[in-house]
Amino acid sequence: MAPAFTHKSSGYVALGSQDEKLGLNSRTSEIPDRHYLDSDWKWRFFGLAYVSFLLCLVIGGLAYKIETSVCPSATPGAKLPHTPAPVEWVNKDIKQDPRFMGKPRLEMDQAWHELLAGTMIRFSAEEMHMANNATSARHVDGTGYIGGLGISHNLHCLKRIRQWMYPDYYYGSEEQDWDELAAHVDHCLETIRQALLCSADVNVFTLIWTSHSKTKPSTRVPQQHACVNWDVLQEWMLGRAASFDQMIGPDPRLYEGNHSQDQSPVVERDVSV
């Protein structure tokens, strides 16, 4: 049945510098007196302590720079998955984009279409091997594989949920398998829930009283977010874009004796522009 709502480990860092030779005694042919030994020992001690302090500052600074520039959201000790994609981090304010807000319309459908461009991309055999020895549908030219990035799947799911909110607009022109659509949306909700928990936004938000309500304060985020540079990432994806027509289909032997199987690819085609 149709939905009720029809409205629509810190690593070793090679320092490269030699140990500093402190307080060498040039009077090697004679035994220094006690006072000289005491004085020499003190200079050695304080010199060594000073150098150790400088080394701690240098190593600590390098470790902080590496951690914040490579992946500011990564938990120390976690193994980051391999990706050939360029991951560039930027600080930015999160602002609402009116193209993706409001009721369905051509402008919105076009914005989603452009956002999901490059969903399927090409990977080399070496890149598949680096990604935990993975495999995927092969490209028709035999030189690589077709797959995608997690962000594309999550965006696809978010779009599918939005379309589910307006079934008359997106699904009203023909008969639909509402149970299948509901199952897809359920899968998408759980996928996005897991993705949000995995990359939990720990930025502080505050509560501000405004004139819009006496019972519900507005939220404010006082700091910029650390975000992946989407423009750089999508440009890379578009440079590797692939299509269903470039994908080698399934082995017919997978469906021997099964007369009710769906022969179409698992990733569904867009229903909008």
UniProtKB/TrEMBL annotation:
BP terms from Gene Ontology = mycotoxin biosynthetic process
Keyword set, alphabetical order:
Membrane, Transmembrane, Transmembrane helix
Q: Which domain of life is it from?
A: Eukaryota
Which intervals of the chain are annotated as region Disordered?
253-273
Would the keyword Membrane be found if you checked this record's keyword annotation? yes
Concerning InterPro entries, the annotation shows: UstYa-like (IPR021765)
Q: Which residues cross the membrane?
A: 43-64
Pfam families in the record: UstYa
What residue stretch is flagged as signal peptide? none
Concerning PANTHER family, the annotation shows: TAT PATHWAY SIGNAL SEQUENCE, YALI0B05434P
Q: Which family does it belong to?
A: Belongs to the ustYa family.
| UniProt-recorded name of the protein | Tat pathway signal sequence
Q: Can you name the source organism?
A: Stachybotrys elegans
